[in-house]
Amino acid sequence: MTLNGESKQKRDILMADMGLLFVALFWGAGFVAGKFALEGMGPLNITAYRYAGAALLMLLLCLRRLRRITKKMILWAGLIGFLMFLGNTLQTIGLQYTTPGKQSFIISLYTVLVPLLSWILLRVRPSRRILAAAFIALAGIALLTLKDDFTIGLGDGLTFGFAITFSLQVVFIGMVIKDMDAMVFTFLQLFVAAALSVITALIFEPIQNIGDLNPLPLAGMLYLIVINSTCAFLLQNLCQRVAPASHTAILLSLETVFGTIFAVTLAGEVFRGRMIAGCILMFAAIAIAEIPVKRGKRSRDEIADGIQKNP
Q1: Would you tell me how many other CB atoms lie within 10 Å of the CB of residue 27?
Q2: Closest CA to 113 of 95, 87, 89, 131
Q3: Per DSSP, what are the bridge partners of residue 146?
Q4: Which of 33-37, 214-218, 235-239 has the lowest mean pLDDT?
């Protein structure tokens, strides 16, 4: 490779890393945006509007690419779209009963769940440091979520359910995305999630008009549609074509940091005592799981990290 070629590659990776940093920022702010939206709209209506709006925007972006749709793409998008619908429904309902900061930390458990699920589904065995990170993360979750009587709140339990469904989504996408058009696949995922969300909302919640929302819930809803879903998903897919897997994993895990910052500054959330200790343990688990080890050959952790992430 020529010097100019190396410089261009480094510049492209730097730009991709910056893009992934923005994805983490968008997702981190999404916890607070969801809390604001809940002040004026039910959780099922929020999920329906979010995915329907994002699917429409993605359709406009990839109209000329729809001829690339294949049967395999439809089948996998259907499965992953279902996981998106189920997970984000659990997340949004759970947000009614917990705080944005706590939710952002619980969801970050996917950083260790993904390698463990890869072990089960793909036979990619994690190393000892990944297993250690899993136990540290579980300890952090316990400190963060357990009440004085050692029970887990409803919102915390639902959020943990989202972490599991999202981790499955990550693993499945990593198995198939390289052979498919990322933009079209993203649209199909969103379309399936939107269809399921709209049907669920029609059955279980009174229909609400997004135009009737007060300014703050409306702003939260529009953020979820345009920034947190459409822009973040598209930017993530574009950046992961260039950014090394280790960069992607580390940068996207910063979603937790941004989620906490926005929860404290915008939602007035306060962390005290064992919650702070739980957060510290979660940060330690993320660092252990995500920071790659320099070796001559790819480690098992790096293989697990190589699976693409898509919330």
Answers
A1: 23
A2: 131
A3: 152
A4: 235-239
Phi and psi torsions of 146, nearest 5°: -70, 135
pLDDT value for 304: 42
CA distance 197 to 90: 12
Q: Is 243 exposed, middle or buried (0-12, 13-18, 19+ CB in 10 A)?
A: buried
Burial 94-113 (b: 16+ CB within 10 A, else e): bbeebbbbbbbbbbbbbbbb
Angle, helices 71-94/100-107, rounded to nearest 10 degrees? 140
CB 264 within 8 A of CB 91: no
Contact 153, 145 (CB under 8 A): yes
pLDDT of 302 reads: 44
What is d(CA 224, CA 238) in angstroms, rounded to the nearest whole number?
A: 20
Q: Indicate if the pLDDT at residue 56 is higher than 90.
A: yes
Confidence check: pLDDT of 299 > 60: no
Q: Where are the domains of the chain?
A: 25-305
pLDDT bracket for residue 308 (50, 70, 90): very low
Cβ–Cβ under 8 Å, residues 305 and 298: no
Residues with Cβ < 8 Å from 13, sequence gap 6 or more? 242, 243, 244, 247
Percent of the chain, pLDDT > 70? 83
Work out the number of other CB atoms within 10 angstroms of the CB of residue 124.
Answer: 17
Give the chain's radius of gyration (CA, Å): 19
More confident: 136 or 69: 69
pLDDT tens profile 258-277: 877 787 788 777 766 777 78
Q: What is the full DSSP assignment across 49-87?
A: HHHHHHHHHHHHHSGGGGGG--HHHHHHHHHHHHHHHHH
